[in-house]
């Protein structure tokens, strides 16, 4: 009975936050003079639904960063000198496959991801996110984003690994593996259930961190989303440049790590870092593959 009452109260609080409208007067501490950036940010919510406004802002950030991050790789596809950095140079994406991917992405982003973004603000308010002025200091923002990467990577490793078993792969994850030679925007090409489940690593991680560790500012969430999108597009880009992050930060997974997963359909389940695959032995075949690839490149 007590659990039912608690759940009902929580639902009532969530619905109340869902209906909340922004108020600059309530978002600025007494005696504090907000900066131009803070005033501009708070003005976006003034008198408007906080849930809908934040959802739309998050969606705009998502689309801008996701497709913007892909553009350099798309350009590289048309530059002959860049083809030597392709991880799977013998596999080519047809125009038909590219457009199929884009159409599926736009449908998923509008009808699956956008609703999730609309519901984030009420959930954030419920666990105590800071939605007011002043903005957090940059060192705190960068520290929290680093922690979010670690949390998401751990969650992604196990959730992704589970998707490679039985019916979960056959009915859900197989969609993502339709492209054996990934290219940037393939990152979010997936079954709606996979999008919702794996997306919890990005969304729920900061919520739990805020509830159990320390307060997170709502603007930090936007920067975290942008950082995570840059990472996942890079992981699916299909290129291994000399300046690619793994070549100077060895524990970063990067494109070569995840490209092998798409080509071989096995191993390398982590999203951002290499350590969980190393600890649990799910990168042994990849290590052998990389040794052969580098040996071949030296001969050439």
Distance between the termini: 71 Å
Give me the Rg, rounded: 21 Å
Strand-and-helix sequence, N→C?
HHHHHHHHHHHHHH
Instruction: Work out the number of β strands.
Output: 0
Q: Which geometry do the CA atoms define?
A: globular
**Main beta sheet: strand number and arrangement?**
none
Structural class: mainly alpha
Question: Helical stretch count?
Answer: 14
How would you sum up this structure, described in words?
- With 300 residues, the protein is mostly helical.
- 63% of the residues lie in helices and 0% in strands.
- It has helices at residues 2-19, 24-27, 36-43, 50-76, 95-118, 120-126, 138-162, 166-171, 192-198, 200-212, 218-235, 254-264, 275-279, 284-299.
- The N and C termini lie far apart (71 Å).
- The model has no long low-confidence stretch (mean pLDDT 95).
Give me some keywords for this one.
globular, mainly alpha
How is the topology of this model organized?
Blueprint: H1 2-19, H2 24-27, H3 36-43, H4 50-76, H5 95-118, H6 120-126, H7 138-162, H8 166-171, H9 192-198, H10 200-212, H11 218-235, H12 254-264, H13 275-279, H14 284-299
Helix pairs in contact: 1-6, 4-5, 4-11, 7-10, 7-11, 11-12
